[in-house]
UniProtKB/TrEMBL annotation:
It comes from freshwater metagenome. This is Unannotated protein. GO terms for molecular function: catalytic activity. InterPro entries: Histidine_triad_HIT, HIT-like, HIT-like_sf. CDD domains: PKCI_related. Pfam families: DcpS_C (PF11969). Residues 7-115 form the HIT domain.
Length: 115
């Protein structure tokens, strides 16, 4: 695990402001600063021990399942319950923050858009 706090750890610690839409002991959800859909939320584990979804699935599958449950609940709260769940994995796949997070995209997506 990197000793440097990730940008999401700094958000979790309130060192950087964000629009928090959900929080519990293990997860936080915020609005993405550069939304790619009418509803674009990020569901983020509070630990930065896992860089991507593959590491999380291997290391703490229950936490991954919790992320999916929170994503579903947020999609009902902020849209009609239908959503796209995206985990960019690796820089060439578009990942820029190496602290695992799920993009929850909803609210009328363009057909074929990958966000
Ligand atoms: P990735 O590209 O790693 O899959 O996703 C990182 C996401 O974090 C991007 O969609 C980006 O807009 C979002 N992001 C980066 N910095 C911040 C920030 O300071 N605040 C918020 N709310 N979102 C951020």
């Amino acid at each position: 695990m990197s000793a440097e706090p990730s940008i999401f750890t700094r958000i979790i610690n309130r060192e950087i402001p964000s629009d928090v839409v959900f929080e519990n002991d293990h997860l936080i959800a915020i609005r993405d600063i550069a939304p790619q859909a009418p509803v674009h939320l990020l569901v983020i584990p509070k630990t930065q021990a896992y860089a991507n979804v593959s590491e999380l699935a291997a290391g703490d599958p229950a936490l991954l399942a919790d992320m999916v449950a929170v994503a579903r609940d947020l999609a009902f709260e902020h849209a009609n319950g239908e959503y796209r769940l995206v985990f960019n994995t690796g820089a060439t796949a578009g990942q820029t923050v190496f602290h695992v997070h799920a993009h929850v995209l909803a609210g009328g997506l363009e057909e074929g858009s990958l966000a």
